[in-house]
Design a protein that fits this description.
This protein has four helices and 15 strands. It is of the alpha/beta class. It is globular.
């Protein structure tokens, strides 16, 4: 499991130290995704963060699955962030993060923002319009990018990183959520929906090639 988290996240060296960046955990996802067992995914993710021991963590939105918040989701979020009290955590609010503050009132180390900028690096979820700030590179999530790869006569959908000019879209770090085909997913990002092409990389860093969206 740790290897999955490793390949689906990024480590960045910044003037604030080492940052660990990942997207779309969708904590409390099991029931809505048709699973009738508790995966305890969020506990394993917290263990991974502590193992990496970053100076700060950026979560690119959709920290939780339900659009609102219920007692069970709130409990899982409190347990998750209780494990991360020693880290500065920045959440760039996603479309699933409604009422997230109700679970975070006791966590002074966690900040929920619309976007975040460090060293001209922009971090955001990707479901809203691009903020009017200067940046050199941007990191976002939202669309859970994936691509179908053929193995002989069998096509398998796999997660990927998608780069469009100076924007890098991260796959969901949740190993139980597959993802959307990049050609469809890109339509869900307002400021990239008219893009004509993008470069695709597998989580292990292998460059797949340039994909035409239209």
């Amino acid at each position: 499991m740790t290897l999955d988290f490793e390949s689906l996240s990024l480590e960045l060296e910044t003037s604030k130290g080492k940052g660990l960046v990942f997207a779309d955990p969708h904590i409390a996802f099991e029931l809505s995704r048709g699973l009738r067992i508790r995966t305890k995914f969020e506990k394993k993710l917290a263990e991974f963060v502590k193992l990496k021991n970053p100076d700060f963590v950026v979560i690119l939105g959709d920290i939780k699955e339900p659009l609102g918040i219920n007692t069970f989701t709130k409990k899982l979020l409190i347990e998750f962030f209780s494990e991360l009290r020693d880290f500065e955590v920045i959440i760039t609010r996603g479309n699933h993060d409604g009422k997230i503050e109700e679970a975070l009132r006791d966590f002074e180390n966690v900040k929920v923002v619309g976007y975040h900028v460090i060293d001209n690096l922009l971090f955001l979820h990707g479901h809203q319009n691009l903020p009017e700030v200067k940046f050199e590179k941007a990191f976002l999530g939202h669309i859970h990018p994936a691509i179908a790869i053929k193995f002989g006569s069998i096509a398998k959908k796999v997660k990927c990183f998608l780069r469009i000019e100076n924007f890098l879209i991260l796959p969901t770090i949740n190993p139980y959520i597959e993802g959307f085909d990049v050609k469809e997913g890109i339509k869900m990002i307002p400021f990239l929906k008219d893009s004509k092409k993008g470069d695709v990389y597998l989580p292990n860093g292998t460059y797949i090639g340039r994909i035409n969206f239209i």
